[in-house]
Design goal:
Order of helices and strands: HHHH
Shape: flat
Organism: Streptomyces spinoverrucosus
Number of strands: 0
CATH superfamily: Tetratricopeptide repeat domain
Structural class: mainly alpha
Protein name: Tetratricopeptide repeat protein
Largest sheet: none
Radius of gyration: 13 Å
CATH class: Mainly Alpha
Number of domains: 1
CATH architecture: Alpha Horseshoe
Length: 76
């Protein structure tokens, strides 16, 4: 997860948002602790917000909340 995320940061700084998005997607799909996944999603949401993609950012921020505060499972 970490390498994809770090490379995505480099791509964002270089202005290569499409490549950064691919790498961020890979990072969110990789195994890792939920806290790190939430951090990746938060970074990605910030990238999208800064790029003016507010709907995408909103969707990603909601994913952060779902990772940090998973919905309660109904009791049987």
């Amino acid at each position: 997860m970490g390498a994809s995320w770090n490379l995505a940061v480099v791509e964002v700084e270089a202005g290569n948002l499409e490549e950064a998005r691919k790498l961020l997607q890979q990072a969110t799909e990789a195994d890792g602790p939920p806290e790190q996944k939430a951090d990746v999603l938060m970074y990605w949401a910030d990238v999208e917000r800064n790029a003016g993609n507010h709907e995408r950012a909103r969707h990603l921020y909601k994913q952060v909340l779902d990772v940090k505060y998973p919905p309660a499972k109904p009791s049987k």
